[in-house]
Amino acid sequence: MPSHDVMPNMDLYQPVQVEDALAIADRLAERGWLVGGGQDTYGWLKDRAKSVEALIDLSGIESLRGIKETADGIEIGALTTLTEITGNDLITQRYSVLSDAAGRVASPQIRNIGTLGGNVSQDVRCWYYRRGLDCYRAGGNLCYADTPEGMNREHSLFEASRCVAASPSDTAPALVALDATMVIQSSGGERTLAAEDYFVGPAIDIENTTALRPGEILTSVRIPSTWANATFYFEKVADRNSWDFALVNIAAAFKVSGGNIEDSRIVCGAVQCTPRRVTNVENAIRGQAKNSSTAESVAAMSTDGARVLAHNGYKVPLMQNLVKRAISA
Amino acid sequence: MPPDIPGKVTGEIKYAEDYKREGMIFARLLTSPMPSGRVANIDASDALRMDGVIGIMTADDLPPSPPPGNPALASEYITFVGQPILAVAAVSEEIAEEAISRIRVDIERKDFVIDPLESLAPGGPKAYPEGNVLLRTREIGPGGTPIMSAEIKDIKWPQSAIDALREGKEPVGAEFPSEWAFGDLEAGFAQSTHIIEEPFVTIGYPHHSLEPRTSMAYWENGKCYFHGSSQSQSANDNGLARMLNIDPANLVFINEATGGGFGSKIGPYPYMAISGNFSRMLNRPVQLRITREQEFYLGSARSGMQGWIKIGVKDNGKVAAVDLVIVNDGGSTGGGSGSSSAQHVTIAYQPESMRFRGISVYTNTTPRGAQRGPGQNEMAAVLAPISDKIATSINMDRVAFRRVNVADSDGFQGGSRGPLTSAFGREALDQGARLFGWDEKINQPKRNGSKVRGVGVGIGYHGAGGRGYDGLVRIAPDGKLHIHSGVGNLGTYSYAGTSRAAAEALQVEWDNCEIHRGRTDNHLPHSSGQGGSNTMFTHGRANWVAAQDAITKLKEIAASELGGSPEDFEIGGERVFKSSDSTQGLSYAEAAQKAIEMGGKYSGMEYPDDINPITQRAVQGIQGTGLVGVSKDKIPGQGQPPGIQVGFCEIEMDLDTGKYEILNYAAVADCGTVVHPKNFENAMRGGAVWGVGLAGLERHVYDPQNGLPANVGLYQSKPPTYLDISTDTNMSAVNIPDPQNPIGARGIGEPTQGASAAALASAIADALDGHVFNTAPVTTDMIINHLAGNTYSTQTPNLKTNTF
Known about the structure:
Low-confidence stretches of chain A: none
Number of helices of chain A: 13
Number of strands of chain A: 12
Distance between the termini of chain B: 44 Å
CATH superfamily of the domain at 15-110 and 215-288 in chain B: Aldehyde oxidase/xanthine dehydrogenase, a/b hammerhead
Largest sheet of chain B: 7 strands, mixed
CATH class of the domain at 62-121 and 166-328 in chain A: Alpha Beta
Helix content of chain B: 25-40%
Strand order of the largest sheet of chain B: 3-4-1-13-10-11-12
Strand content of chain A: 15-25%
Largest sheet of chain A: 5 strands, antiparallel
Shape of chain A: globular
Oligomer: heterodimer
Radius of gyration of chain A: 19 Å
CATH architecture of the domain at 15-110 and 215-288 in chain B: Alpha-Beta Complex
CATH architecture of the domain at 62-121 and 166-328 in chain A: 2-Layer Sandwich
Number of strands of chain B: 31
Strand content of chain B: 15-25%
Distance between the termini of chain A: 50 Å
Low-confidence stretches of chain B: none
Helix content of chain A: 25-40%
Radius of gyration of chain B: 27 Å
Number of helices of chain B: 22
């Protein structure tokens, strides 16, 4: 077993204009690898668990950074760091669920380097897959985690399709809760996707966790004013309080009037390969009082359909409790 | 401020990896991808044809190291994932890595095992073809010299014993290679009014030394200059010289700063053989850089335990009987710490009768070795909630229960019931309870919404000192006191703390002292390994006796110069002078000059016969340059100096999430005199942090399907972060001098972690109305499962180690 820790030989492109990056990405297609903060990338490459001909380093493209107000909300450049998001006034005042989520990602050092685009586009953290085993997600024909003896404490409760890896992102549930739009550019132009559709599960695409295709770059995230200043809730439960991925996290937005919930978006992370909207709960609490009684009455339904693996059963009560807390908070 | 702190903060300090040498080449390792097998063939022809590749080293290039040895490079016996098979040297690391990927190694797979109980079961897999258990033997050789040896034995238990232990019962009919007992166990249980039986399991975890064990070696004029990463200095000399097949006189071991060891770098480790021998083979300086990932595999780990304990107590809380069974997970090196775990029980309980039965089983997981309080600390973590359960069952306060049982100066340790030099566990408990506010905290409201408070108390213990090592000091003609220390520099500055013993005995201003350390050719005496919390006691004494020798010589020199007998003289103000007339005397500088002129023992031209050969060489290196004080520590006395610590912890647990916040932590050490208050507090804090890891976060996780480890990375192994620990800490010490150390100190490094782990485990149990998980660590998912009444996930206890 080689134990590598130097970077492999590969080409490195460092464009400073989006157009140049798009041209390079288009030309290289599958042979290129986009890197922002690199916190997901470098492990893959140094471990040789994935290899690539060329890195396209986006970090020099200034236009992909920053947070600006738009006619209908805000737009966040994909290269904006998690630290910037955590401390940005527009976000903390109007969309605090996102700044709260960004502030719980990994560690301060990683948040200083890690970007929003990277955090939502990062690959799953299934340790079998990360080790370079030939699982379904890696193009093979088996799953090491979804077995009676698999070490699957961190894996999915829902929507498993051959692969049971869970979404590792803290900001992804917040963006889904905020009904964000992902702006994707390619040399052919721009397309947008609802955050909910940006994330894809194994039933649709087992080798990718997002709808981003070779040649495309996630350039920004737009957050509409629809949910600005809503009543928000974010909580992440991880073994450690820093530098750890969620066992379960929750991001929720409520429109509350007269103590009653007019509408809500409640999203859990780390329970399936994509952020999971708990739509049955959203429907059940519409028009109900936002209080602990309502919360208690719907918490259990949040995990309807869960398929428990050998070691992740604790996620069921944990998710129920987080849904309960989000509604009763 | 210790002198190397600025360098560590700025990065200017040099670790082994930072040393370069002209012509240096880079070696990298090819390691096993599978947990068990044998190397059938190696084809390195492609790699050796690459530009820049200098050579390859395999097991064939090193002396054989058959089982139970832990070879530097494996061939016939591959026993863990990540085990080195060969090294490639090249002019750059990149080329070396590329070369490794072009080498084809054919490995014959063999059965593997990660669960010791599975290996003990009839027909169960075993880590070595020869067997599954490491057996240490001790025979008396010619002249009564004990000959220690080890062998691998195949031991199987009846399935009924396996089933019984897994169900938390005594494994009747099981074979135990290690067993001791004292007192009348049967009578002890008969006299007990309350008896409980509990199973327990602890999971080992890696040391994760921040400085991986990189080494660099080069040879000049038949001498090997070896830059290594060790906890110790002189304690490496003989073992490393043996690895290189040279006279220790031809080894210069250089190690000025070390980035963590925690027990994994006490003495030379197998992989040192690679850089040293490879360098000689290729006649080039060779650096073998160990990666972060490799440090997980090669850097050693704590042993795990699967066990059962039966405890009988009398109405007054006194423990009358303990019956203890421990199956250790010895990983690929087989050694466990069961007896040390039992030793913890003897200190915590001082039972009237006790039996220990232990067996240490090989698994195809990483090598295991000493890790901060090996045996004692993980036992402390699982014993604390069990102790609470007993105390509660007899309506006794949990601190009071410990107070009744803990060792005092008349107490004993271990199965041999050996004496202690002094012990003040009760005083520590009393002081700690006051510091923490135990009486108030146990009576405060527990529940607040989804939050519940828990308070806990725990005891940590480790033997804390050795005897019989050498001290070496020299007063130079400029009047400076040169203290030669063979103590390593792990960042605890014990080399400096112990040097103060010589400075104070000779009454020399600290600014007028110079410590020589860090490389063999600084003429360093024979020293203990910096493990086992021993250094403060061991080398405080050794330096003190060297200083006494220097004082004797100062007085003799003064008497010969000024008339009278040595008894007429005393020292002070860096002078030796007549007690009757302080104007008649010599400065230390003058005395040193006289010593050189007088020669013989005064200048180190002669030295005592009983000092170690390492010290003899050190004296030879400085002889004739001043007044030499050198002596072996023969201070009379007996017994083990104990390091005892009590910890008190308050947590607030969220019943919705299973998470808890550690609100505050108070600890009191019984470590004799505190020599260096700042470093004492640092040791206390460091141990407190790691105790949180032991009790709540860290563990090995292996896949039973393929033997692969799940948490190689630091982020996956989860040592506690700043946000996982208490920032409200109160540290104190009983501070009663130990009578068998002239400076009064005993060690405390290891118990600091055990006390913290035990106190946290106790607090977790308290928050959950006394629920005993019987595991270390107790992780978030276990707490959630318990609260939810889940039965379909992690069973507690399932007595499985190395898995979830």
